[in-house]
Amino acid sequence: MAGSKFSASVMAAALAGLVLTGCAGDRDAALRQNLDQFTAEDIYKRGEFELENSGKPADAVFYFSEIERLYPYSEWARRALIMQAYGNHRAGNYEEARGAAQRFLDSYPGDEDAAYAQYLLALSYYDQIDDVGRDQGLTFQALQGLRTVIEQYPDSEYARSAILKFDLAFDHLAAKEMEIGRYYLKQGHYAASVNRFRVVVEEFQTTTQTPEALLRLVEAYLALGLPDEAQTAGAILGHNFQSSPFYDDAFRQLRGRGLSPEVRGDNWLSNVYRQTIQGRWL
């Protein structure tokens, strides 16, 4: 037993020395020629070391991927695969992170780390949607991945974080609609702006964008000469967000036209009022 421990420590030290000597090109070539002389555990530990100490997660990914190549059916290959996903995500290689996470889910769907793999898969999309102007397809993919975590792994330690990120991603979609709607409103394309703000009110009403969407509907409908719709939008805003500065602004605009925030006419907004405030769905 003592001999085997000594042998393992010598091999690990040799592997460390191999990494720390020579130029990058020589090192990579040497590694590819000699890694098969080490155990899967030795290579895994070196990958962990690189991940924790080198500041270059891509170097760690190299070791984890080599385990998958050299010891494809081992327990270490399973562990290395999830670490590939994590290391690639840390390196900002989101597509590679998704690939590794998906391979893990395909190969080990019932594993205890499956929830984490699904969470990493969702994060690989979520972490690319910081900018409202980015491709909204990423946001939809993030929502789908996060929903899977929430629904399939509700008792996992990642479910709560997934719920919070889901709400933020959902708000992000509403923010995109608002951005476009405000542009149309500013350009005087009032009907087009209404269409965008309507999407927020009807499909994203639980987001933080809803109060402003109702205010902008007041503005757009007043500009279109449709006081019933403007007043009804103001009524919904006042009922749900009376303490909001958006309501104060809407109230001033309505009063400036001799109007008040109240439900008027039979339009889509009056239907929203009946359904969400009065609870009348028919």
TrEMBL record:
Main location: membrane
Cross-referenced SUPFAM superfamilies: TPR-like
UniProt keyword Lipoprotein present: yes
InterPro entries referenced in this protein's UniProt entry, alphabetically: BamD, BamD-like, TPR-like_helical_dom_sf
NCBIfam families: OM_YfiO (TIGR03302)
Subunit structure: Part of the Bam complex.
Designated name of the protein: Outer membrane protein assembly factor BamD
Gene: bamD
